[in-house]
């Protein structure tokens, strides 16, 4: 098992990564204040992993709530069912919520923990690659509103993250690739050496070699933990984590939610960010080609969807959350392994890259 720490003073917490962790009581018990445990999961993950996690809490008061599966259920109404369950079972302030599942379950359970009786503890047990390298770390929690994704939420850090790599064995290949988009992102924004490593080990990662996956998850979590420790509430460098995301969100919205997975849109978005960086003289053509090879190697798309017109993409990007004082800001690359947030590009360059 590999363990690293997210350094946030009194709110610091460990991330454990490895095989066979789900049912290990020693990983959970140090973080429990009381004996009431609510496992929040969904109908896909429950039959696979709920029994293993329950084992870790033998002798304690364990209950579970099984949510429907899907981003479309990340709503206020479905989220409220967690409170119904907690209140029906008279859960007290010293209870602990366990988020067992992908990013949807993690965000919903985390946000419920942030709000129940003004805040209770929770532990992230991520079961998708995306959740293990991204959504379970950093304390962003929330739900969707019909007017926008993740528009209602809170910062609430977990007490621990337990990432069992065995769970990735049942993950659909498309979801694995989507997670690799975020893994690659960490290399592009901060770690050229990791990018070299990913280039050499992509075949192993795609075929789920356990050692390769464990290393990729560890390095990804280290980079994310470092950035979160620098800028917990996203007033500065945390914005770098959005590399490829402004392009990506425009793609997700443009093709209709659910058509492209988030990671797929981010993959194409990273290629577009690289192309714009080259247009502005920051990257070489060879670096852009290498970016395409890396993204394609992870089974991800490298261009915008053909049926999404460049003009429509520009429109969608203009309403992005990262627009500040009317200026669109983008994360661009200075080299492979170093990103910057900037609004210094002209619309023509952007339009050219999208075309
Ligand atoms: P997801 O939670 O929808 O999981 C993808 C699919 O895989 C689901 O059908 C799920 O039931 C299934 N699944 C989960 N684990 C499995 C396993 N081990 N085997 C088989 N199937 C499994 O999607 P995701 O990609 O994990 O997360 C996306 C969500 O995360 C979005 O809602 C996004 O907004 C959020 N997110 C949050 C943050 C953050 O910082 N809080 C960061 C990135 C993404
Ligand atoms: Mg993302």
Automatic annotation (TrEMBL):
<keyword id="KW-0170">Cobalt</keyword>
<comment type="pathway">
    <text>Metabolic intermediate biosynthesis; chorismate biosynthesis; chorismate from D-erythrose 4-phosphate and phosphoenolpyruvate: step 2/7.</text>
</comment>
<feature type="domain" description="3-dehydroquinate synthase C-terminal">
    <location>
        <begin position="179"/>
        <end position="323"/>
    </location>
</feature>
<dbReference type="InterPro" id="IPR056179">
    <property type="entry name" value="DHQS_C"/>
</dbReference>
<feature type="binding site">
    <location>
        <begin position="69"/>
        <end position="74"/>
    </location>
    <ligand>
        <name>NAD(+)</name>
    </ligand>
</feature>
<feature type="binding site">
    <location>
        <position position="262"/>
    </location>
    <ligand>
        <name>Zn(2+)</name>
    </ligand>
</feature>
<comment type="function">
    <text>Catalyzes the conversion of 3-deoxy-D-arabino-heptulosonate 7-phosphate (DAHP) to dehydroquinate (DHQ).</text>
</comment>
<keyword id="KW-0862">Zinc</keyword>
<keyword id="KW-0520">NAD</keyword>
<keyword id="KW-0479">Metal-binding</keyword>
<feature type="binding site">
    <location>
        <position position="149"/>
    </location>
    <ligand>
        <name>NAD(+)</name>
    </ligand>
</feature>
<feature type="binding site">
    <location>
        <begin position="127"/>
        <end position="128"/>
    </location>
    <ligand>
        <name>NAD(+)</name>
    </ligand>
</feature>
<dbReference type="Pfam" id="PF01761">
    <property type="entry name" value="DHQ_synthase"/>
</dbReference>
<protein>
    <recommendedName>
        <fullName>3-dehydroquinate synthase</fullName>
        <ecNumber>4.2.3.4</ecNumber>
    </recommendedName>
</protein>
<feature type="domain" description="3-dehydroquinate synthase N-terminal">
    <location>
        <begin position="65"/>
        <end position="177"/>
    </location>
</feature>
<feature type="binding site">
    <location>
        <position position="140"/>
    </location>
    <ligand>
        <name>NAD(+)</name>
    </ligand>
</feature>
<keyword id="KW-0963">Cytoplasm</keyword>
<feature type="binding site">
    <location>
        <position position="245"/>
    </location>
    <ligand>
        <name>Zn(2+)</name>
    </ligand>
</feature>
<keyword id="KW-0456">Lyase</keyword>
<dbReference type="Pfam" id="PF24621">
    <property type="entry name" value="DHQS_C"/>
</dbReference>
<comment type="similarity">
    <text>Belongs to the sugar phosphate cyclases superfamily. Dehydroquinate synthase family.</text>
</comment>
<keyword id="KW-0547">Nucleotide-binding</keyword>
<dbReference type="InterPro" id="IPR030960">
    <property type="entry name" value="DHQS/DOIS_N"/>
</dbReference>
<feature type="binding site">
    <location>
        <position position="182"/>
    </location>
    <ligand>
        <name>Zn(2+)</name>
    </ligand>
</feature>
<feature type="binding site">
    <location>
        <begin position="167"/>
        <end position="170"/>
    </location>
    <ligand>
        <name>NAD(+)</name>
    </ligand>
</feature>
<dbReference type="InterPro" id="IPR030963">
    <property type="entry name" value="DHQ_synth_fam"/>
</dbReference>
<keyword id="KW-0057">Aromatic amino acid biosynthesis</keyword>
<keyword id="KW-0028">Amino-acid biosynthesis</keyword>
<dbReference type="InterPro" id="IPR050071">
    <property type="entry name" value="Dehydroquinate_synthase"/>
</dbReference>
<feature type="binding site">
    <location>
        <begin position="103"/>
        <end position="107"/>
    </location>
    <ligand>
        <name>NAD(+)</name>
    </ligand>
</feature>
<dbReference type="InterPro" id="IPR016037">
    <property type="entry name" value="DHQ_synth_AroB"/>
</dbReference>
């Amino acid at each position: 098992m590999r363990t690293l720490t997210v350094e946030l003073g009194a709110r610091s917490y460990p991330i454990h990564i490895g095989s066979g962790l789900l049912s290990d009581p020693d990983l959970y018990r140090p973080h429990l204040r009381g004996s009431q445990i609510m496992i929040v999961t969904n109908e896909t993950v429950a039959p696979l992993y709920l029994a293993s996690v329950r084992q870790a809490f033998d002798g304690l008061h364990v209950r579970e709530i099984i949510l429907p599966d899907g981003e479309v259920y990340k709503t206020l109404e479905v989220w409220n069912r967690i409170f119904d369950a907690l209140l029906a079972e008279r859960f007290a302030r010293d209870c602990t919520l366990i988020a067992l599942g992908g990013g949807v379950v993690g965000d919903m359970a985390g946000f419920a923990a942030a709000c129940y009786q003004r805040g209770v503890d929770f532990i992230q047990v991520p079961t998708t690659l995306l959740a293990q390298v991204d959504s379970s770390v950093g304390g962003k929690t929330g739900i969707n509103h019909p007017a926008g994704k993740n528009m209602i939420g809170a910062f609430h850090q977990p007490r621990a993250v337990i990432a069992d790599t065995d769970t990735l064995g049942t993950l659909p290949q498309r979801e694995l690739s989507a997670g690799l988009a975020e893994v690659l992102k960490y290399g592009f924004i901060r770690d050229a050496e990791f990018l070299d490593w990913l280039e050499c080990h992509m075949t192993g990662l795609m075929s789920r070699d356990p050692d390769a996956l464990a290393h990729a998850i560890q390095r990804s979590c280290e980079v994310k933990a470092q950035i979160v420790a620098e800028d917990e509430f996203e007033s500065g460098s945390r914005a770098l984590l959005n590399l490829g995301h402004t392009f990506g969100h425009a793609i997700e919205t443009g093709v209709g939610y659910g058509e492209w997975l988030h990671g797929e849109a981010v993959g194409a978005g990273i290629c577009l960010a690289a192309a714009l960086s080259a247009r502005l003289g920051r990257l070489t053509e060879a670096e852009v080609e290498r970016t395409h090879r890396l993204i394609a190697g992870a089974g991800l798309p490298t261009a915008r969807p053909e049926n999404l017109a460049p003009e429509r993409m520009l429109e969608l990007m203009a309403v992005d959350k990262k627009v500040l004082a009317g200026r669109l800001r983008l994360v661009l690359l200075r080299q492979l392994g170093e990103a910057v947030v900037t609004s210094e590009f002209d619309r023509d360059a952007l339009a050219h890259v999208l075309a």
